[in-house]
Every structure is written in structure tokens, then in C-alpha cells.
């Protein structure tokens, strides 16, 4: 599970009765202290002012909640509240039709509606006309609402418009000769109000604020900008991140011993090398019972000859040597270990500068040569003098490829010194693969804190994050954060100058990516998480 939006799986994980951060939770009511003066101001202006009252704030700022509180706090006996929506019906015909239906007026016209409002005023009843999604009203609808707000001498409705900030620009374009509306802009929650909001949401679902730490609450407040709609989204994502991290930390059952395959292979390789080294350890050159001379040394050739037949003994090939080496029979003398095998056994290393140690020619003892029993039909020479096997100065791991020559048999005459071997050329270091847009904070640190990125998903596996970024390409990248002591890799998309631009970019993402419900967040919140991780 890598998606930050893991359907409803987190409900069971946290033992929640319902999703506490759903956009609409039945029975949920939260009205912070800062909203109470706004509510009182709306009631005051409705009674003593003839202006249209315009309440603005970004999406998820709590406009609908304020409208509900306004309706709930009115006296039902003296006020009739008419709530309409401009969504899908933003022209004058659509708005007037909804108002006429609510007031039982046959004709959806300004004059007919005002006549009904005057009749209600004569009975001591006022009309509150509240319009949701008012930013979708066109010019004709705004002019119709202004006409209703002006009313007649005998009665008029109190018109409230709840919409985003673009509504103010639409009203300004009407070029009204006098002041006809009053704007009230909502402010975001403080961090303490965010905490109270989270606590009330969680309590309604059967849990408490202890699900979040103080640091998490601060991160949620910062990431959401204090707007309740964003708080719901960020808090839900935080819970899912905790769930993903805890599930990733769960160990497999203790029955049996499980280990990653790459570790098993590495250990197997070490065991094989250890067994081979044990087989080649000195001390196995006991005199065989079959009468084979003990002084016959089974040596690795130094690249100067072709090995003699060894009675059908199995052969093994080493990298860098094109000729097979006869394996020693049981009881034969110990061959000299070469190259990587000798180094793996831990007994022999190269010189400090990485080259083979020099060969000491000062001794009268001839260099080590291969001594074998002569093949059938070849007269045997005089008995060879046993030559000790040098162990402190191993043969170089790699030799220049010489011209093949018959293997020299040991005689009384000392053999000439072998030709100097060519210094092996060092293998070029493998060039590390360039990682796909990794979790480094350099890119995020270079972005303006006020910019926005689109958070796609989070995962506890860096490999999964890398694969996702590599598959999607483009403007996808990820960063590493620490959640409850565990690493979490968060994938983001793009960099945008405003939240609206980020929201528009989400709509253009592939359907597969949109299925995870990506959401915009500020670069500042990402930079804060990166700073905390360091």
C-alpha cells in the first residue's frame, strides 16, 4: 500500500466509527471563537443596513458552515431563510426560479418576488436570501440580486452572498454609482483553533486528539494554511502516513528464519569461498599411501606452460587464465593459492601500492616450478630435489598471456628465472548509475516558499518512490521525511505560483494518478519537513 489515500482502510486501523475528515459529516458543528464576531456582524448588518453582504474566502474556508450557523441562529418565527445555490444555475433565470419556488411565487420575476416579500413583511416576517457558490453568478444574476436587495419601501429581503474572492471583482465590474455591497473576508484558523477543530472531528468518530502529536498538529496547521477544508485533507493524509509506516515496521512471524534473497546469496558465496579456502589450507600434503612421491608439488602454472595430463583429474578454470588447473588428488601436496581466492582466504595480500610483490632473485634456490610424474613411455630423469613452496610471496593475480610452451621438468640444472610478469592494468571503476530525481532537498530548497506543489502519494519504500518517479517522468520528484521515527518518501508534482494553478494541474494529471486524490501544498511546508528531517 503506497497511496496516501488508502480508501477507508485507516478506519479499522485507528478504530474510527467513520471518516472524521470527510467533507460533510452529519451532525458535526464547529464554530471557532473568531467566527462568532463575524456571525454577530452579519446579524447586525442585516437589521440596520440595506447593503448586500458578501462573505468571501477560498475553497474550504468555512463559508458553508458560517451560512448554516447564520440560518440556525435566526428566529424561525420572525425570519424565513431562503437558501439557493449558483452551482449549475448562475444566471438570473436560474436564481429567480429557485427563489420563486421557495416563496411559493408563480412567476420567477423580480417584481413578483418583491410583492410576496412585502406581504410577508406586513405579517411581521423578514426574508433572508442566502446564495451559496456565489462566485459562479453571472452579471445578470448579480443585477437581479441587487434589485431584490434594494427592495420596495414596504419591504425588502436581506441578501447574503457566500463565494470565493473572485466574486468581489465581478461586483466591481458592475460599475455601481453608489455603495451597494459590504465585503467580509474570512480569516484562517489559528493553530489553537486547528487543534480544537481536529479534536472535535476525532471525538465525533470515537477517538481523541491523542492520535496526533503536537508536532503533527503544527505540521497539519502549516500545511493546510489554517483553512478547515485543507485541514481535513492534510489530517487524513497524516493518519494514513502513520498507518503505512506502522504496517511497514511490522516484522514477519518469528517462526522460521527469513532473510532477503540478496543476503542469502552473499552468505552462500562467503561459505563457498571459506570451504574452498579450507580445502586449500596448508598441511594437507601428507604422503599418500599409494606410493606417490611426497615431493611432487601440484602447482598452479605461472602462465609459462601447458599443464601435463593428470590422469583424468577434474580441472577448474580461473578468470584471467585460459588453461585449466588440475585439482589435487587426495593426499597430494598443497597448491599455491592465487588471485582473489588467496585474498578471500585471508592469508595473502598484494603489496601496499596494489602491485604484486617483487620476486627475490638473490637466493640460489630456483623459483618454484611444476614437478609431475613423467608420462608413460618417457624415461624418468634423476630424482628431483624438493623445492619448498613459497607462501609469503604469492604469484601475481594476473599475468601477461605468454606463448604456450611445454611444462619444464625439474632436473639437477637450475631452471632459468621466469620472465617478469606484466603489471595488470587496474579495472576501471564502475560508474554509478545516476539516481532518478532523488530525495535530496536541493530542488525544494531552491523553490519559493510561497509556491505550491501537488502531493501525489507517500510510501515507506524508497525503491517504490524511485520506480514511480521513473515511470511517470516529467515534473515528478520525491523527498524524504521522518514520520514517527520511520522514513517516509513523499512524491510531488510540479511547482506552481498559486494554489489555483496547482488545482488546475491536478485536473490534467493521468486518471491513474488522480485516483489517489492528489492535493496542493505549499513549498514552505515541504521545506519545513526537510529541515526537521535533517
Concise summary:
This protein is an alpha/beta fold. It has helices at 9-13, 35-48, 63-72, 92-102, 110-122, 139-150, 166-172, 191-204, 214-224, 228-249, 261-279, 339-345, 442-445, 462-472, 499-507, 511-514, 523-533, and strands at residues 52-56, 79-85, 126-132, 158-163, 181-185, 315-316, 325-326, 452-459, 476-483, 486-496, 519-522. It has 17 helices and 11 strands.
Named CATH architecture of the domain at 35-185: 3-Layer(aba) Sandwich
How many helices does DSSP assign? 17
Q: Give the distance, in angstroms, between the N- and C-terminal Cα atoms.
A: 26 Å
Largest sheet: 5 strands, parallel
Plain-language structure description:
The protein has 534 residues and is an alpha/beta fold. Among the domains are: 9-17 and 190-249, no CATH class; 35-185, P-loop containing nucleotide triphosphate hydrolases (Rossmann fold), CATH 3.40.50.300; 442-533, Alpha-Beta Plaits. 34% of the residues lie in helices and 12% in strands. It is built from 17 helices and 11 strands. The protein has helices at residues 9-13, 35-48, 63-72, 92-102, 110-122, 139-150, 166-172, 191-204, 214-224, 228-249, 261-279, 339-345, 442-445, 462-472, 499-507, 511-514, 523-533, and strands spanning 52-56, 79-85, 126-132, 158-163, 181-185, 315-316, 325-326, 452-459, 476-483, 486-496, 519-522. The strands form 3 sheets. It has a 5-stranded parallel β-sheet with strand order 2-3-4-1-5, with helices on both faces. Strands 9-10-8-11 form a 4-stranded antiparallel β-sheet, with helices on both faces. Strands 6-7 form a two-stranded antiparallel ribbon. β9 and β10 (486-496) form a beta hairpin. α11 crosses α12 (339-345). The longest helix is centred in the middle third of the chain and has 22 residues, at 228-249. It is elongated and about 120 Å long. The protein starts with 8 loop residues before the first helix and ends with a helix. The model is unreliable at 1-6, 251-257, 286-415 and 424-438 (pLDDT under 50).
